[in-house]
Amino acid sequence: xxxxxxxxxxxxxxxxxxxxxxxxxxxxxxxxxxxxxxxxxxxxxxxxxxxxxxxxxxxxxxxxxxxxxxxxxxxxxxxxxxxxxxxxxxxxxxxxxxxxxxxxxxxxxxxxxxxxxxxxxxxxxxxxxxxxxxxxxxxxxxxxxxxxxxxxxxxxxxxxxxxxxxxxxxxxxxxxxxxxxxxxxxxxxxxxxxxxxxxxxxxxxxxxxxxxxxxxxxxxxxxxxxxxxxxxxxxxx
Length: 237
Hints:
Protein Yojf, Chain: A, Trna Endonuclease, Chain: A, domain 1, 2 domains, eight-stranded antiparallel beta sheet, five-stranded mixed beta sheet, 18% helix, elongated
C-alpha cells in the first residue's frame, strides 16, 4: 500500500465528470492499483476513487497542466493518469509530497465478526433452554425446498418449532420464516403443525408486530449470556 499526502488537483471523466480543486489531500494506492483520494472530514468514503481493474501511469507534467490551476503556482511534481477497463479516467496533478510511503501489508486474513448469525445459531443450538425449559434441538440447518431453516427444535410439549436466527430482526426475516413454515406445514413427517420462533439480538417493532399477526413467537437473544460473559453480580441494576 502506498500513502501520499500532497497538494493536488483531481479530475474525473467517465459516466459523469467531477473536479476537485487544488488542496492538500491523502491519496491511497493499493496493491490492486485501485486509487482513492481522501479529505480529512469523513471516516471511510473517499472524495474520488478508481476501482480495479485499472492501470496507473505516472508522468512528468507539461506547461499547460501547471497553468490549468488558475492563479496558483502549484509546482506540480507529477501527473497520475488512472484508467479503468470501462473507460473511466482519473487525472491527479500532484505537488511535492509531504508524505510518500509504501508498505507491504501482506496477506490479510479477512474480517472475523463477533456475534454473527452463524455464531448465534451455534450458541442457541447448544443452549435450547434459551427458548424455554424442556426445549431440545432436532437439527441445525433443516433443509426445506427453498433453503435451510436455522434450527428445527421440539418444545416442552414435543411440538416441532422452526427457529430463524438473525443478528438484527427485521421484516424480511419474518417473511423468510413465514415461507419456511408454509412449506414445512405441508410435510406430513413433521406432524399436524410446525410453529415458528424468530430469534435475534434486536427485533424491530414492525417485525415483532408482523410476526405476532402470523402466530410467530419472538425471542430476544442475550448474546453475552449465551457466551457465559454476563455476570449478574457485576450489574448495577
